[in-house]
Amino acid sequence: MKVLIVEDETPLRLSLLDYLRHDGYVCETAANYQQAHEKIKLYQYDCVLVDLTLPDGNGLDLVRTLKADNSPAGVLILSARDGLDDKIQGLELGADDYLAKPFHLAELNARLRAILRRRQFQGQRHLAFRDLMVWPEQALVLVQEQPVTLTRKEYDLLLFFLTNPNRVLTKEAIAEHIWGDAADMADSFDFIYTHLKNLRKKLQDAGADNYIRTIYGLGYKLMAEE
Amino acid sequence: MKLLTTTNRYYLALVTVLFAVGTGALYIGIQHALIEEVDEQLELHHGFLRQRIRETGALPPVTSPSELTISRHPRPAGLSDTLIYDPTERSQVPFRELSFSVQVRGQRYWLTLRKSLIETSEVLGVVLGVMFTVMGLLFGSLVLLNRWLSRWLWAPFHRTLASLRRYRLQQPQALELPATPIDEFSELNQALAQLTQRVTADYRALKEFTENAAHETQTPLAIMQAQLEQLMQLPDLPAAAASPVRELYRATLRLSRLHQALTLLSKIENRQFTDAQPVRLDALVRDKLGQLQDFLDAQRIEPVLQVAAPLSVTMHPLLADSLVSNLLQNAVKHNLPGGQLHVQIDARTLEIRNTGRPLAGEPMQLLGRFRKHNAASDSPGLGLSIAQQICAHYGGQLTYTFNPVGAWHTLRVGF
């Protein structure tokens, strides 16, 4: 899957590049409006990550260009301007999602995956991981071909792990993904642990290994290998 | 004190002094003129009597003893004042008298002519009466004139004052002051227009600065957060580094939350949320309580929601969301395990009561910025400030009371 990262801040661009490449995406980058404009005119991408404030132009114009060209690429806006207007305008122009800076890389990845899943009609639409298979369209979870019943929160949690396998997910990133702004108030994240414990138990009862490991002091990780 | 009252006081003082002096001078003047007149009449009478005595060679007949007396005893010649008992008036009456001597048939007689002064004092009375009436009328009309002047002449001033009261720094249109032909007022209006222009320019510059600063801060925060998350992914991250990385990461998140809260506060203060629509707060509370279910379960709290009447407030949906979230989150976060949370809503108020730790000091102080009940808490202590700011923005009021009996904390929003 081919992704274009349009971001003028070099360290952030490199972090995004590194994170997404690690996940098997084919990534290209553009550091300014001019480069980005050339690339979207020349090549096809599955998704474009657009920073709105570029030194030589407005990212919203890139979204306009993509839509004017009837590009099939998904668009995810990244903005440091925490303005509601930008968000509304961006989504009205046809962007698929909007993420305000600063964001968790895992959250970005989850949003990117969701966009790609929605857009790829011909491709495989399920997520598979070892004994696990998830069909997000039907919210169906299978362990060794057998369906497992999960609560809404447990399902969200599992999907977040599946979109970020082999990554340390911090409790903060998990809380923010699942509880949104309300996560701010959680001084302790004990209740994450409760949900996680239930999820682990249900998966193990269905015959899966304990994939979700606690990384001491940092967070949790979905392990690909034993 | 009103300007009019002050000027009226000075007018009154001036008029009183002028009238006192004027009345005194008039009194003395008129009295002097009247006596002069009487003296002249006495002299005329004197000349007439002498001529008659010379022609007839006999003394005139004494018809009224109060007006003419004839005596054989010598008297000092000339004009003088005297008091004579008047049986009709039953009092001593002032008289002016003129004495002189005549020679009739070798015999010397002393004649005294008198004229009553009682009429002159009556004249004085009339004069003073007229004076006081005039003074009263003059002062009364001055007061009325001033009232009229203040209504008409000062009208531009009152219009300026009204425009100033309506003026808001945040509004895009400049201060509009009506034109006036009076120099003083047009100078005042000019000075005010210039002042507000300068202040508006400063305000805009400051606002732009805040916005740019906010934007410029978000980017490095995003870099820090992304880099720290990358660092955590390293499979060979030494255990000794994990803890500092985690602390840095948490601090970055705190900073970013703080930054978002401050940006929101300054946006509310700058009145950047102009779109408003009716929002059903009771429905919003129900929604938010649903979203907080996990947090409520974790604390074993069963919220009680009582809606006596639907509460609809015209406000920006984002701010309504922020208000309700902040109040409810506050009530959950500072609650006790197994505590209580009651929400009561009627057509004008939203009241959130929760059990919590006892509070020392003034509860309203916790609405201030960076005020925290628990100083060691990770949260920046801006939630209630934001709630208060939102309430104030829509003309509502947020009050915080604490009842030590049962340690109930009550936050009440009145619209």
Automatic annotation (TrEMBL), chain A:
InterPro entries: CheY-like_superfamily, OmpR/PhoB-type_DNA-bd, Sig_transdc_resp-reg_receiver, WalR-like, WH-like_DNA-bd_sf. Residues 124-224 form the OmpR/PhoB-type domain. Coiled coil: none annotated. It comes from the Bacteria. CDD domains: trans_reg_C (cd00383). GO terms for biological process: regulation of DNA-templated transcription. The modification 4-aspartylphosphate is found at D51. The keyword Nucleus does not apply. Keywords: DNA-binding, Phosphoprotein, Transcription, Transcription regulation, Two-component regulatory system. GO terms for cellular component: cytosol; protein-DNA complex. One of its GO terms (molecular function) is transcription cis-regulatory region binding. This is Response regulator transcription factor. It comes from Hymenobacter jeollabukensis.
From TrEMBL, chain B:
One of its GO terms (cellular component) is plasma membrane. GO terms for molecular function: phosphorelay sensor kinase activity. The chain crosses the membrane at residues 12-30, 123-145. Its EC number is 2.7.13.3. SUPFAM superfamilies: ATPase domain of HSP90 chaperone/DNA topoisomerase II/histidine kinase, Homodimeric domain of signal transducing histidine kinase. Keywords: Kinase, Membrane, Phosphoprotein, Transferase, Transmembrane, Transmembrane helix. It comes from the Bacteria. It catalyses: ATP + protein L-histidine = ADP + protein N-phospho-L-histidine. PROSITE patterns: HIS_KIN. Residues 212-415 form the Histidine kinase domain. SMART domains: HATPase_c, HisKA. It holds the Pfam family HATPase_c. PANTHER family: SENSOR HISTIDINE KINASE TRCS, SENSOR HISTIDINE KINASE YKOH. This is histidine kinase. It comes from Hymenobacter jeollabukensis.
